[in-house]
Amino acid sequence: MKRIETWIVFTLLMVMRLQAQVLQEDGSVLFTYTHKEATKAVVVVDNTAYPMQKQDADMWEVCVQGLTPNLHTYLFYINDVPALDQRNPHRMRDVASTFNFFILPGGEADMYQAQDVPHGTVQQVWYPTLTQTQRRMSIYLPPSYGQGDRYYPVLYLLHGSGGDELAWLELGRTAEIMDNLIAAGKAKEMIVVMPNGNMYQEASPTYCAERTPWSDSKVRLQGTFEETFSDVISFVEKNYRTITKKHARAIAGLSMGGYHAMHISHYFNQMFDYVGLFSPTYSTIPIEERNMPGMKLSFPSERTTPRVYRNVEKDLERQFAAKPALYWIAIGTTDFLYQENVQYRAFLDSKGYPYTYYESQGGHSWDNWRHYLTLFVPQLFPHL
Amino acid sequence: MKRIETWIVFTLLMVMRLQAQVLQEDGSVLFTYTHKEATKAVVVVDNTAYPMQKQDADMWEVCVQGLTPNLHTYLFYINDVPALDQRNPHRMRDVASTFNFFILPGGEADMYQAQDVPHGTVQQVWYPTLTQTQRRMSIYLPPSYGQGDRYYPVLYLLHGSGGDELAWLELGRTAEIMDNLIAAGKAKEMIVVMPNGNMYQEASPTYCAERTPWSDSKVRLQGTFEETFSDVISFVEKNYRTITKKHARAIAGLSMGGYHAMHISHYFNQMFDYVGLFSPTYSTIPIEERNMPGMKLSFPSERTTPRVYRNVEKDLERQFAAKPALYWIAIGTTDFLYQENVQYRAFLDSKGYPYTYYESQGGHSWDNWRHYLTLFVPQLFPHL
């Protein structure tokens, strides 16, 4: 089993020399962990747990076979205590979980890694709102931005309920994916705007204290984010070189961000020509009630409902009457929101609203969302 | 012991409800950790270990008294396995260690927290170099940047050997400190440039794989970063609205970054009017040889030495002949580099070179470096 001679090996050899893992040519990775008093050690790679075997006095190890080219995450559990690889600085945070990662190169995985291509610029910028004084968003500016007189189309890209304005950058590898797609001629140069969709947060917890607990689900889906999304658009179109036309605006999101993208795009129904719903949920009624086979989605309409949720069917009618260039829905077959998506597609079919559907393996996870992004972005703005 | 009614309490109460800590009014914090099979639990707060007591079947707890207003870090050790607070998303990475943090408000600690003041913008941008194709740097643009025709002075701010272009932002709270100092009228609006000073890295490991192991100390201090620092300055002055004069340039750094700031500022000795050395090291000879009491620092001069280290004394003579507006040295009394700093000050004294010296408690740690930054920045560019 010869070592692969690529850059990735340096990362992994470095780590190996010190503590934790080795890459071998056939996609197998050796995980080791040293701890004197452990009686049980497990490594969770992606979502699969691998029990480790005790090798000597304090060294535990397991060789995981057949990992495919991709970004892989891992976390040790030493006597059931979640433990990072103390020697690998490559790590990501998802809500309150931090784990290590590495990229096995090849295929789409190469899109997730910074390559020697022109790079865009990433910004964190604060924008004023009516509901809170200021909120933070991340912005990706493409490589040629600022070097000439061009104006650019904009993709608004929304995170899930545990995320924040850094999630698409850190877990989603958006800057790397955009740089690499653009360099390969597979995507147009565009601005990507990643706001923070949790109204209880003004910014990521790396920056700000929350004013409300994130565990309080009542603060999540009150419609405020969707109804005030014009704040985000106004700020971006005022401060950046953007094409301020429907044919140059796209909106996409994952999970709760898919919910946001769906509701924002029907509420501002003449605004976006491209809509991407990645593993989305749709309705404001509890999941238990809407996720049963045979059930149809229903949208509330009471006067007490936030405005954005009050006229969903009418708004969708207006949105589809204006013929969006792309209405793209993607979900994995084992996603817990799969059934709800069957229902939403049945609803769209019943109305004769055209959409494009993409079904992948797997569930509600970042490896699907990175994959969906690499599929969605090349379909945007072909005329520009 | 009444709860403090400030925003911070929300963060901590949130956490408490789920798992890990409670704030009380007298600066005491209750740390708890739940684990079924633990036989030993410790929490390390800042750099002090507190053994936890078993409360019932699986709950461990310790109340830590007398914490002062500051940013405090903590990490649990459950049966000696380092463990994050799984319910607190507030965390920082330092080299390959990740830990939780919270801020006890009051005094200077309020500078470390985003407040309701005008915020600057943070960028990560790639710049071209002669030695590598591209490298990434972080840039802080002050609140008024881009809103008028102003040009700004620039502070170049350098991290230590385990850091990268995100270290001053994440661990150093630079954006928060700058926003708050500027809002309080204590600092001028300025651009802060935070490049990556480790030449084996093109960017932070959140973004890039390293091409060389960070543990290989030989790649650290080869002079390349210092000698090519003109790449950084050129890029910044070409692409941002900067005042391109000595009186509008400052350079500062911590630890290895202090070493870089010292060597860059004598090498480009007509370039910087303000120099800040935070817990710096100075010489290229091994620490063991230069850190003995009574020993003088010596700078190598052989032809094989990188150019930047070859004429240090001559360069310093030129630097001080041009009368820098501020040459500021800060170190903690228990820093392992303390003795070396005694020697460097003796050297400056022997030459009659003026400098300002600030001595703090404590050692080689981020709480000192955040503190030094809040002291250094108000001294910059008083005439602008």
What does this structure look like?
The structure is a homodimer of 384-residue chains. With 384 residues, the first copy, chain A, is of the alpha/beta class. Helix content of chain A is 25%, strand content 26%. Chain A has eleven helices and 18 strands. Chain A has helices at 7-18, 167-170, 174-183, 224-227, 229-239, 256-267, 287-290, 307-310, 312-321, 338-351, 366-376; strands at 21-23, 29-34, 41-45, 48-51, 53-54, 59-64, 70-78, 81-83, 91-94, 97-104, 121-128, 134-141, 154-158, 191-195, 249-254, 274-278, 326-332, 356-360. In chain A, strands 11-12-14-13-15-16-17-18 form an eight-stranded mixed beta sheet, sandwiched between helices. In chain A, helix 6 (256-267) links the parallel strand 15 (249-254) and strand 16 (274-278). In chain A, helix 6 (256-267) crosses helix 9 (312-321). Chain A is globular, with a radius of gyration of 22 Å. Strand 11 of chain A pairs antiparallel with strand 11 of chain B, so a sheet runs across the interface.
